[in-house]
Amino acid sequence: MEREKSFWIKISFLVSVLLLIVKFYSFYITKSTAILTDALESIVNVVAAAFASYSIYLSSRPRDDNHPYGHGKIEFFSAGVEGTLIMLAGLFIIYQSIYNFFFPNELEHLVEGIVLITLSGFVNGVVGMLLVKKGKQLNSIALGASGKHLLVDTMTSLLLIVGVLVMYLTNLFFLDSVIAILFSLYILYSGYGLVRKSVAGLMDEADPVAVEATVDVINRHRKPNWIDVHNMRVQQYGGDRHIDLHLTLPYYLDLGQVHDEVEELEQILEEDWPGVMEVFVHADPCIPEKCCHYCQITDCPVRKFPMDIKIDWNANNMSKNQKHYHELSS
């Protein structure tokens, strides 16, 4: 898996370098600030792909004494660096656009520039879609971030082509700076999105997608002996996922039976995840006076009250640090 991640990020880096040359050549022959925005973003692509390559290498290293949860969080840092670079490029473009609005360049060879930007946009789109797809398959935030960045670059390139065509057909060359500023605002927005995601991961913000996926797996394999699941925490670092939860079991089970139930739940979760999965399950005994009302065991030998409700397990009640009988009282 790590080799495949490394392969695709290297492809991203090589493509970014080639398109960087193409876009700066386009700017050189046209003198268009709008085209310069595309070229500057390609510098970000190159730097980000290089950093993502290193982050994937580092995240693939096994856990050690200093990093008991592995090195997967570096991918969040990589996405943050990429987002910051995108935002800096956007700010520089705004400055350059305002300057050129008052001191405009004479635009030349716009048709040739349009052809080159069209070619680079097409290549970016293909590579971007592949990286997003591989990022999902390989559970790599760095690959996914690089792919989304290239897709953003493709969108801006396509809109840029439209803008340059309008300038070419109307000779309203002041639109060069206007188009560049509009694109730079979009670039700032996309950069902020990556930084926001990076900060959320580094701060261990709850990941709704990972939590819902875990809830779905447990519901599909739900057993009567699993009276409830609560205090569940799901964290994802790169391709590694860590799950902590409390599992309520019948109090009359012996230690060996409790171990078997816990091990079965751990195995179910581990087999459902293609990357590295670490599961910690804390077993709680049931409280007959309170748990019998929703316990699903039909032949329970110590039942004191009839079952009169079935509690649906969802991300909300499984994440709370309390047994589910609190839902009945509330």
Q: In words, what does this structure look like?
A:
- This protein has helices at 2-30, 33-59, 74-102, 110-138, 141-170, 175-202, 208-220, 255-272, 288-291, 315-319, 325-329, and strands at 228-237, 240-249, 276-285.
- Strands 1-2-3 form a 3-stranded mixed β-sheet.
- It has 2 domains: 2-202, Alpha-lytic protease prodomain-like (Up-down Bundle), CATH 1.20.1510.10; 208-329, 2-Layer Sandwich (Alpha-Beta Plaits), CATH 3.30.70.1350.
- It is mainly alpha-helical and 330 residues long.
- The model has no long low-confidence stretch (mean pLDDT 80).
- It is a multi-pass membrane protein.
Number of strands: 3
User: Main beta sheet, described?
Assistant: 3 strands, mixed
Q: What is the CATH C-level name of the largest domain?
A: Mainly Alpha
Strand portion: 5-15%
Continuous helix count: 11
CATH architecture of the largest domain: Up-down Bundle
Which outline best applies? elongated
Task: Classify the fold: give the CATH topology of the largest domain.
Answer: Alpha-lytic protease prodomain-like
Oligomer: single chain
DSSP helix fraction: 55-70%
Main-sheet strand order equals: 1-2-3
Helix/strand order: HHHHHHHEEHEHHH
Tally of domains: 2
The low-confidence parts are none
Radius of gyration: 27 Å
CATH superfamily label of the largest domain:
Cation efflux protein transmembrane domain
GO molecular function, one term: ferrous iron transmembrane transporter activity
Subcellular location: Membrane
Domain Cation efflux protein transmembrane: 9-203
Keywords: Membrane, Transmembrane, Transmembrane helix, Transport
